[in-house]
Amino acid sequence: MSLANSETAKSRPGRPSEQVILFSVGNHSFAIAAEAVQEIRSTDSLSGTATEIENSGIEKVQHTLKHARHSLYVVNARVHFGLPASRPTLVMILRGMRVAVLVDRIERMAEVSFLHRLPCAFIGRERNWYRALAYMGDRVIPVVHAGGFLDEEEIQYLDSIAAARQPAELEGAVHE
Amino acid sequence: MSAFARSFVLLHIGERRFAFPAGLVTELAPAVRLHRFPHTSSHLLGAIMRRGKIVPVYDPRSVFGAKRSSANLFYLLSECNFGAATELFAVPINGESVLVSGELQSSEIAGPEYVSGFIAVADERVDVLDLNALIASTFPQEADSTLARVRG
């Protein structure tokens, strides 16, 4: 997918800038480092490559996705951020991670030259969700931490579920 | 006590009137845009952008049982203790703020921790708000553990 409508923010001299992708979930906008995203696909293109995980135990993960011989866990960003129902139409495949993220839409690409730290007063789960805040186009936009969608412990847990189910599925296949 | 410490700003938080030490006021800011984003921290409404800084908006009105009102809203900005650090907080306040002089007096009856005493204003007792104590009481312990994580 091509990311049109790129906007270059005013850069401050001497400060390195960072390319980000702005995406939305429900009524909220988020940014993610462009280099953290390997690919963006339409959810329509996932048929045949996505598999439902029954009783995953992690509400935000209900599917796996086959991608380049790897199995990725698909995180629903709406559930991850605790937002009301929305309609995801795109999946962002994260680079170097076994994680893909369902989002509603991509807004645009932008360049940010200054990131604000998340104030210490924010003490909840958002500390894992966000690595910074950006002020762009008169909006404060959280910059998500790509590794915050699924931590290593959650991935291991999902792996253990998948591993436990595999022998049963194979057994079923033999009996058939 | 210095002359500065005897100046107080009278302000309304929800329906309650407090006196706040003027020397602790960083700024009284107009009702600039409140930016909201998903988070799970209670008593925070979001953040405002002020003088190039992103400032968390702390809403103590739920502590006082006061209704939220956008009427004549502006923000009290003050540096507050948060764990072992200090953080600039914005507190929504309603109505006019008046600068008065007064002598901080101790209450005979122990009140809530966030009241450090009172001043007399035209024969009326007005509680003096201790914002640090209020924040400490609404962010118990987590603040310290969060700061420890932030600092690594």
Give the distance, in angstroms, between the N- and C-terminal Cα atoms of chain A. Answer: 41 Å
In whole angstroms, how far apart are the ends of chain B? Answer: 39 Å
Total number of strands of chain A: 12
Strand content of chain A: 35-45%
Number of domains of chain A: 1
List the domain count of chain B as a whole number: 1
Provide the structure class of chain A: alpha+beta
- For the record, the CATH class of chain B is Mainly Beta
Q: What is Rg of chain B?
A: 16 Å
Would you give the CATH topology of chain A? OB fold (Dihydrolipoamide Acetyltransferase, E2P)
Total number of helices of chain A: 3
Low-confidence stretches of chain B: 1-5, 147-152
Q: What assembly state would you assign to the polypeptide chains in this entry? A: heterodimer
- CATH fold-level name of chain B: OB fold (Dihydrolipoamide Acetyltransferase, E2P)
What name goes with the CATH superfamily of chain A?
CheA-289, Domain 4
**Biggest β-sheet: strands ordered side by side in the sheet of chain B:** 2-1-7-6-3
What order do the strands of the largest sheet of chain A run in, or round the barrel if closed?
4-8-9-7-6-5
What do you see in this structure?
Chain A is an alpha+beta fold. Helix content of chain A is 18%, strand content 40%. Chain A has one domain: OB fold (Dihydrolipoamide Acetyltransferase, E2P), CATH 2.40.50. Chain A has helices spanning 77-80, 126-129, 152-175; strands at residues 7-8, 18-25, 28-33, 37-42, 50-52, 61-67, 70-76, 90-94, 99-103, 105-112, 130-136, 139-144. Chain A is globular and about 50 Å long. Mean pLDDT of chain A is 86; it is low at 1-11 and 172-176. Chain B has a single domain (4-151), classed as OB fold (Dihydrolipoamide Acetyltransferase, E2P). Chain B contains 3 helices and 9 strands; from the N terminus they run E-E-E-E-E-H-E-E-E-E-H-H. Chain B has helices at residues 61-64, 131-138, 142-151; strands at residues 7-13, 16-21, 27-30, 44-50, 53-58, 73-82, 85-101, 115-121, 124-129.
